[in-house]
Design brief:
Layout (H helix, E strand, L loop, with lengths): L1 E4 L10 E4 L9 E11 L1 H8 L15 E9 L11 E4 L12 H4 L14 E5 L3 E3 L6 H4 L2 H13 L9 E5 L3 H13 L2 E6 L2 H9 L4 E4 L6 H8 L5 E6 L3 H10 E9 L13 H5 L3 E4 L5 H13 L6 E5 L4 H10 L5 E5 L2
Parallel strand pairs: 8-9, 8-11, 9-10, 11-12, 12-13, 14-15
Antiparallel strand pairs: 1-2, 3-4, 3-6, 3-15, 4-5, 5-7
Helix pairs in contact: 4-5, 7-8
């Protein structure tokens, strides 16, 4: 079978499309013929800096895939040949709080990724594809969608009529907008692109702010909410935006800390977290149970993921270059077969 591999720390253009021996599923495992894989910022970061993540070469990138079960291992139950499935980001996080065991089961990091024609996954590490979704659409759900769902539903679920602040228009933020629309929650969205903000309005965004035109966007959020602030912030920027997110949140508000798009270092004053009794919760994807619950909502509302662009398997490098350009809106998908 063919698989894309990280073979050096040379970045995107050093990715190599190689032949690999196809593994057979063991007890409790399934062999999946991959039809599509989506790209997350984490995947790009892994490709650009595998050394700091202590990855061994060669290793297959990407955490998200959708495909068809073509073989099952001895004693495998609950999954059959022919099932349409999506992989779970964490192969060993069934339910409950995250653990070190779950962390050690992340695809495309602690475990080999899925940007290959065939992958072996745990039988409990896959979930059924919602019937109305294509392979490409299904491949967008394992990381970005579940992260957004987790942030909006646990540990403090948003309530109808509340206000959620969404930073940017990447995969997590776009999914969060779609979920908020389902939940009856109004959103304020920030971006540097008026075109992207218009697209978020078409998805139901209540208010939008161009942060290049409105430098003090945190103050604008407070103004738009009649001096109260946002009930929940989907914080994907990291150190470069966290202070403003804190200032934009209401007293007793909740910040879901998800991304580090602005880097890993920066100064943040904790005084407003304390004075406003804000809860800041790190969110790292989610459990299989959350995944199943999310898919019920997606199926009920016939929700369709927003795909920016699809790439051929042989042209996978272009998908990561598109991610690096930050020009995308929604998800980037690589077709596999």
């Amino acid at each position: 079978m063919r698989a894309w591999e990280i073979i050096t720390d040379g970045g995107i253009d050093a990715l190599s499309l190689n032949e690999r021996r196809m593994s057979e599923p063991g007890p409790g495992q399934v062999l999946v013929k991959v039809h599509a894989s989506s790209v997350n910022y984490r995947d790009l970061s892994t490709i650009e800096d595998p050394t700091s993540r202590k990855l061994s070469f060669p290793t297959i990138p990407n955490s998200d895939a959708a495909g068809e079960v073509v073989a099952v291992g001895t004693g495998t139950v609950g999954v059959a040949v022919g099932d349409r499935v999506m992989g779970c980001f964490f192969q060993d996080w069934e339910a409950g709080p995250i653990s070190s065991t779950a962390m050690a089961s992340a695809l495309g990091g602690a475990k080999p990724g899925v940007l290959a024609e065939y992958v072996v996954l745990d039988a409990r590490g896959v979930v059924p594809v919602p019937a109305h979704l294509s392979w490409a659409e299904a491949a967008t759900l394992p990381c970005a969608a579940l992260t957004a769902w987790h942030a909006l539903t646990q540990p403090r679920p948003v309530r109808p009529g509340e206000t959620v602040l969404l930073l940017g228009t990447g995969g997590v933020s776009v999914f969060a907008q779609q979920f908020c629309q389902i939940m009856g929650v109004r959103t304020i969205v920030t971006s540097s692109s008026n075109t992207k903000l218009e697209r978020m309005r078409s998805l139901g965004a209540w208010e939008t702010i161009n942060y290049r035109e409105t430098i003090d966007w945190d103050s604008k959020v407070v103004e738009l909410t009649d001096g109260v602030g946002a009930d929940c912030v989907i914080e994907v920027g990291g150190p470069g935006t966290l202070q403003k997110s804190i200032d934009a949140a209401r007293i007793g508000g909740f910040i879901a800390l998800i991304g580090i798009l602005t880097g890993v270092e920066g100064a943040v004053s904790p005084s407003n977290i304390m004075r406003k009794s804000i809860t800041v919760q790190g969110i790292y994807v989610g459990s299989r149970q959350m995944y199943v619950e999310m898919n019920k909502a997606i199926s009920l509302h016939k929700m369709k993921p927003v795909i920016d662009e699809e790439f051929e398997f042989s042209d996978a490098r272009a998908a990561y270059h598109r991610m690096r350009s930050a020009q995308h809106f929604g998800k980037l998908v690589i077709g596999v077969g």
